[in-house]
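Q: I have 150 residues here and want to know how they pack in 3D. Can you give me a structure?
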Amino acid sequence: MTGAYTTGNVVAASDKELWCLATAIYFEARGESYRGQVAVAQVVLNRVKDHRYPDTICGVVYQNQHRRNACQFSFACDGIPEVINDRTSWAQAQDIAAKFTNGELYLTEVADSTHYHATYVSPAWAPRMEKVTQIGLHVFYKFKRGWLFG
């Protein structure tokens, strides 16, 4: 079945790492479907596994946060204070973070994607990447075979 949930790998994550992952899910995708939120979590963890990025969840989520509007996870560098005001969405983000790191969730259609963007923007890097799928308002990409990033 296309787009099936399968089990992923268990990832050791401290409470702080789980908080960073839930924060990314909440601020990047709380308006998306459950699948869309899982997809964002998967991109974060794919980056943790990729040698081109920091090797911790918090390191990935907050990479380049000092560069205003120049980081992958826009909430981390947009200059707007993060305030969690939707308790239901926050609880779901925390649940997804826990289930993903426990290996209970994995989206086959997202696979090893390391990038995504909203459908209403056209980032300069997108044409150099291989489009993998779209879930809701997010388009997911992976590196093209043989292409080195930055």
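Q: Anything worth noting?
A: Strands lie at 115-118, 129-135, 138-143. The helical segments are 15-29, 34-49, 57-61, 87-101.
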